[in-house]
Amino acid sequence: MSTTVLFSILLRLSTYFYLRVIPVHRFARVIIPGLYLGYLVSAFTSSVEQEPAVVVVPETVEIIDVKDATTNQLIEEVVKVESKVTVVNGHAGRPKAPLSSGNSVIDTLGSLLLSFPSKSRLLNLAGFVINTALILLAADFAYTPTLKTYDPIFTRVGAVDHSSARIVVRYPGLETGHLRIVWQRVHPLNAHTDIWKEGPILDIEEEKDWTATGKISNLWPSADYIYRLAYLNSTLLPYPEKPIGFKTFPDPKSSSGTHFKFLLGSCMLPNFPYNPLHPERIKGMDIIADWIDSLQPKPAVQTAASTTVPPNPVEEAESMLSDASSAIASATNTPISELPIVKEILADAKPREIPPSFMILAGDAIYADVPHYAGDKIETFRKLYRRTFASPSYRRVYERLPIVGMYDDHEIKNNFAGEDEETKPPFANASSAFNTYYGHANPDSASDVNYFDFRYGDNAFFVLDTRRYRSAPTTDPESTQLPTMLGERQLHDLYTWLGKVNSTATWKFIISSVPFTSLWHGYDGQQDSWAGYKIERDALLDTLFYVPNVVILSGDRHEFAFIEHRGKIPEISVSPISMFALNSMTLHKQSAASMEKTYIDTIYDSEGTSVEVTAIEHIPEERAIQYIPSGNYKFASLEVDSRDWRRPTLTLEAVINGKSAYKFEWIGQPVSFSYTSSLAVSFGGALKGLLNKMGLMGSVL
Question: Where does the PhoD-like phosphatase metallophosphatase domain start and stop, copy by copy (predicted)?
């Protein structure tokens, strides 16, 4: 095999791996350009070799006498003439290798696919064109995202609670530099009107990348709303053409229980696997949008939580009842679905799939260092966010579904450890760009932190920041410094939150951008995840063991895994939304360390006397219940149903490459809420909220 052929084959394999398998940035910077240069040099060297030379040796004349063998007399003379013609390689002096004739199909395919030399100049030229096209495609994939100008106009819903919603708007080129959000409530049986309420005014400034976030307040719980964008005089702007909708969350003070669904995912990169015909597509988001469409009939109005889809009977009843009736239901410990008026609606109802209420992005919403790291300037980070929001695929999701999110390392730099230093490059610029597009739209938190918590009715969520405060992992056994993932302040806030929600929330979800489990192999699995911070992790698990119905949600690994910690605490790790998949087994089935699990059961003898029986079982501290590494497009749907407080359920569905790949249902523990639920307190709170929404609170006070 010639050097040219070897370089060509390696170039083609490397380019395919880079564009379709794993976009390792070293391929774009070093390997692919190096192989292409080697191919060119080798091909040029071969082309300048001397053409085969024909060497003609002068004729040799030899006279042969033919004699009689017996008499030795001359019979005749024979003249023998010899002329030698030798073909040699004029450059090397060796016989030249035969070339492919280019006539057969096999020879043609060999020349096109493997760059075998051919007598056909056209085939040799085709090989050169193919290799040049491949390196141009690799360059397009690597450098276009940071060189091309993206300037999308968009709006989306961020954090929603029982009385407000945050709205993100990007509107470049707005002459006035200001716009207003206008909104109205819609009812299942009434279409929206042309009468809009004036909402917050947003400053759209170039120095903020033409992006701002506003908050619509004083809303009703469990109610449907729509909004549009307008000039300050309330004249509607051309975008969005149709209202964007959302539904407020249930009141967290109500004990009537909830039934909802939310989505979890992380890690997405536009146009991977690479397709030059669809440069901005995020196929995983198209899959999510199609999956949402499959749950319900197509809505008549574009909404942010399928708000115009006719709600199921329970949701319809909740939206029809006032805050006061919800307070009565809460005070009497009667689920709203058990009230007589709602029972009539439910009598002939048929159960059906519910749409998701919101989505949590658990990190890597952009890739600042893949497929190419273009530096740490704030404009570089902003451009990558603009590219993502310019994607038609993502627009199909964020214009209909509220989204909250947290950064991981690739919004900053691979395996970033901030060490609680805000000025550590490139965190300042990376976090500023993140906050512009995601952070400012997340639920309220302290002004100087990015982690946050929120409620959906009787369910609580805490989203961790696993990058800003973490110390660099160490393998030095003599190190006296205790490594930390969360930092002292965040860890304190997490424990405080656990204390608050322990007996005030049915399900508790902790969202970590990196896996909690230590079962994964490799550096990322053992150092970049919680496995590299074992002491802090184990102490947290010690506490979580006594918290009922706590669930850990994570991402980052580009695999799906359902892990059980200490025989009780589930972890759901799912990614990527749209990125490469490892497609190989990188997870241990269970940990080497084990623990004792005690089972206590009550049995009755023949006389009816109860006896407690205790059994002890040795189980692994961690074990994988389900593991699916393959699939470029993964997300999880989690359906929560706490309407029956005695039997709260959580249903997991893992969707991989657009198909349901795994389902599991938990039956949680009953939680006896400890906060006051007296009629006076509940009704008083509802009345106060009612007066506030009617604009009468100031006169009362």
Answer: 355-592
d(CA 633, CA 560) in angstroms, rounded, equals: 10
Rounded distance between C-alpha atoms, residue 175 and residue 199, angstroms: 20
- Per DSSP, 170 falls in state E
Closest CA to 394 of 294, 240, 284: 284
d(CA 559, CA 586): 9
pTM, two decimals, is 0.83
What's the CA gap between 388 and 367, in Å, rounded? 10
Does residue 460 sit in the same domain as residue 521? yes
Enumerate the H helices of 502-594 as residue ranges: 522-523, 534-544
CA-to-CA distance for 330 and 202, rounded, in angstroms?
38
User: What's the rounded Cα separation, in Å, for the pair 63 and 78?
Assistant: 6
Give the position of tokens 């307070």: 327
Residues in the chain, total: 701
Cα angle 137, 141, 142; round to 5: 115
Please name every residue paired with 54 in a beta bridge, in sequence order, or none if there are none.
Answer: 87
98-136: per-residue pLDDT in tens? 555 445 777 787 778 777 777 778 888 888 999 999 999
Residue 441, both tokens = 């739209």
How many other CB atoms sit within 10 Å of the CB of residue 280?
Answer: 18
Q: Are 460 and 453 in contact (CB under 8 A)?
A: yes
Q: Evaluate if residue 573 carries a pLDDT over 70.
A: yes
Domain of 70, in residue numbers: 55-87
